Amino acid sequence: MKQLNCKQTSSTVIQFSEQFNKVGDNKCILPKCTRQQKERQASLFSLYVPQWSGCYDDFYLLAFDNYDTSTYTLIDVGSNKAYAVATWFAFFLPELNITQANLDTYLQSTKKLKITCGSCDDCEDEPLTRKNTKHQVTLNVHAFEPQPDTVVILNGVKKWMNVSERSKSTFSIHGMAVSNYDGKVLFKKCNPGNEVCSLDVSHTSIDEKVEVDVVTLDHFANEHNLSRIDILKIGTEGYEPFVFQGAKRLLEEHRIRLFIFEQLETGAWLNTTLKFEVSKLTKLGYVCYIIGKTGMILVTNCWSDKYDVEHNNLLCVSSRDGALLNSIDQMRLTGTVSGICEKRM
């Protein structure tokens, strides 16, 4: 298996930006894999599980290098210690010197966490490099975290990052859960920074539960006048399907350009399947890939039951965003099937 060619990816967006302007909202006719292609890709995937996709790399950000966008809205659902947020700032605004390693150093200095580096050794990740640093960008980052004690940690991270004082960008923390309804929800209490707590309060005593606010992404986007979400990361320890349900309008209107979600054999995933959720997203016009350490594998119209493993991460991109889709598609593992639209109607 060959490594991802990041150099080629960063220039792809420019090549296809004109094409995207032409196709606009036209419906994408997606290709379908042959049986042989499905079997070949599934065999390739089987060589690299379980940790290949469980802890993916952030090369997808290179698709946004040289993009003709000046302001990005990024949302992290299940922010925990804010390593995804640090990764975004490190890439888009390197001048702020907010890196994964520097975040770990800060978290260690607080002496409030038993483990400061993320479960995927996030603190050891090297920041990706933007080539087009002359193009100034502004980030509006929203981080959701329901655990009250972890929210305290995040507020300290926000103060340490000091983003709004050093740039035109913003970093907002929302101490609430994200699901398929608005209101209140019981959450299992966990130590600050614990990465495996969720909405599952079964076998949990009253003293081990905490009531928190819960919101849908549709409601949140409407309340904050978000016309578009450029990147959405969803890590809710098994309740990602509920987040999809609460983002129904955003997905139908393709106001989410790209999103990454985790799939685990727990929580809401016990009542659905990855195949079913991907098929629903396909019907809406999203192209989905399993994302791993060294590239991606197309699963839209190319499903295999071998993808039903204990832990996966998937990246989905709007087929209406031709430039972004073409750039992301070039990050596939060598020899795997393309998710580029065969034609548009």
UniProtKB/TrEMBL annotation:
Gene3D superfamilies: Vaccinia Virus protein VP39 (3.40.50.150)
Coiled-coil ranges per UniProt: none
Entries under Pfam families matching the protein: Methyltransf_21 (PF05050)
InterPro entries in the cross-refs: FkbM_mtfrase, SAM-dependent_MTase, SAM-dependent_MTases_sf
Domain Methyltransferase FkbM span(s) in chain numbering: 140-286
Protein name according to UniProt: Methyltransferase FkbM domain-containing protein
The organism of origin for this protein: Adineta steineri
Top-level taxonomy: Eukaryota, Metazoa, Spiralia, Gnathifera, Rotifera
